[in-house]
Amino acid sequence: MTNHSNISENDQDLLLSKAYGKVLNGELDSAQIDDPLFKFLHEAKIYQYGKSEEIAVKGKDDVKASIFDQINQTEKDQTSSGSANIYSLSRSKWIWAAAAAVLIMFTSIFLLRQNTQVESTLIADAGTTITPVELKDGSIVTLRPNSQLYLNSESEEHMSYSLSGEGLFEVTHNPEREFLVETTEGRIRVLGTTFNLSERNSETNVYLIEGRVSFETPDQDQSVTLTSGEGATIRDLQLYETFSFEESLVTSWTQSRLMFSDRSAGSITDELEFHFGIEIEMEESTRSEVLGGSITLEDREQSLQDLEVVLGGEFVQIDEDRYQFQLQ
């Protein structure tokens, strides 16, 4: 079959594409390719896996400068060589620009993750019970069922923890020490205070009961300082306006009860799902009903029965940890 391609077998971009294919197939290591972008990717790979080599680039602005310096230098080298290529002023340049843009994007993500990922050690898992945990400085954390507390780092001047789930924090006052609690959506900075922190469904809520805290997004671009009686929410990395709350409604779970006022049935069942580690199916019309009152959290069957009475229906168990609400 006749080859109608006008691209020479020695075309630089064609050779680079073939080399890239060999890298993807495991036939060639990226370090063996004599190309500035591939060399940079290889350095990033080395850095990611903690080897001895170091990347000279410290941030995404430096990354951009480094990449485009290499692009400009390559174009200068091609110009000075006097070689002619029908794609030299259009196709090659656009390929370089596209490659640079993609590399900048992925390198920015890589650097962000390197800055935010922390090696953590699990220090408490509440399992199915409300679990109090005493920290080394005397602070007390009461974990809600199905919640975990991790230690990120600690020193005399700094203590950092991560929370998955929900917990009530009673932090010992120490103005010479920074106390941090992180979730996937937000971060709390305190000196000495009491607050309730919950994290689930891409949403972090903090309720400050006593003291003063700073509540911020992981990238620290958005933050708010809370005082006693104020709460705030970060949802999908967006900080929302502060609000007031009633302490007894927020912390009632520590007494194995769920108290609520003007709350939707959907938000109540969401909380029961988390507390007992179950799934509840419910029609949207029922989820939107507004309720007030309290139910026990000591036993899930009793909790569901209490809610059945108010909603006028029945929670039918369709699997070991799965229920469906049916109106009567």
From TrEMBL:
Gene Ontology molecular function terms on file: sigma factor antagonist activity
Keywords from the UniProt entry: Membrane, Transmembrane, Transmembrane helix
Transmembrane among keywords: yes
Residue intervals passing through the bilayer: 94-112
InterPro entries linked to this entry: FecR (IPR006860), Ferrdict_sens_TM (IPR012373)
Keyword Transferase: no
Positions of the FecR protein domain: 133-213
Protein name listed in UniProt: FecR protein domain-containing protein
Signal sequence, renumbered to the chain: none
Pfam families: FecR (PF04773)
